[in-house]
Amino acid sequence: MKIYFELNGKPQYVEVEPGESLLSLLRRLGMKSVKEGCGTGECGACTVLIEGKPVRSCITFAPKVQGKRVTTLEGLGTLDDPHPLQKAFVEAGAVQCGFCTPGMILTAYALLEQNPDPTPYEVREQLVGNLCRCTGYRKIVDAVLLAAEWKKEGKWR
Amino acid sequence: MRAGAPRSSCLTGWPRGILGKKGGTVRLRGVRRYHWARDVDEALSLLSAYQGKGALLAGGVDLARSPRTDIEGLIDINGLGLSYIRSENGGLRVGATTILAEILGHPVAFEYAGGVLGETLRQVAYPAIRNMATLGGAVVSAHPWADIPTLLVALGASVRWQGEKEKEERAELVDLYAGEFRKIFRKAVLLEVVLPPCDGAFAFEKIGRNAWDIALLNVCAGLGLREGRISWARVAVGARPARGERLLWLEEALIGERLEEALWRKVEEEVKARIEVEDDRRASGEWRRQVAGVLVRRALTRAAGKAGA
Amino acid sequence: MAVKLGQPKEVVGQNVLKLDGLPLATGQPKFTMDMDLPGALIGKLLYSPHAHAEIVSIDTSEAERVPGVVCILHHGNVPRIPYTTAGQGWPEPSPYDTVLFDKKVRYVGDRVAAVAAETEEAALEALRKIKVEYKVLPAVFTIDEALAPGAPVIHDEPDAQGIYDPQRNIAAAVDVPVGDLARGFAESEVIVETTCEVPYVQHAALEPHCVAVYFDEDGRLVIRTSTQVPFHVRRIVSRVLGIPLQRIRVVKPRIGGGFGSKQEVILEPIAAALALRTGRPVVMNLTREEVFVSTRTRHPYRVRVKLGAKKDGTLHAVEMEALASAGAYGPHSGTVLYNVGSKALPLYNKARHLRFHGKAVYTNLPVAGAYRGYGATQGFFALEVAMDELAQKLGLDPVELRLRNHIREGETSPIFEKLGEGREGRPQIVRSCKLSECLRIGAERIGWYEKRKSPRREGSWVYGVGMACAMQGSGITGIDMAAATIIMNEDGSFRLLVGATDLGTGSDTVLAQIAAEALKVPVEKITVYSSDTDFTPFDKGAYASSTTYVSGNAVLRAAEKVREQILAVAAELLEEPLEELELRGEKVVSLRTGREVPYWEIGHRALYVTNQQHIMASASFACPESPPPFAAFFCEVGVDTETGVVKVERFVAVADCGQPIHPKLAEGQLEGAVVQGIGHALYEEMLFSERGSCVNRNFFDYRVPTSLDVPEIEAILVPSEEPTGPFGAKSIAEIGINGPLPAISNAIYHAIGVRLTRAPFTPERVLAALRAKRG
Question: What's the CATH number where C722 sits?
Answer without folding.
Answer: 3.30.365.10
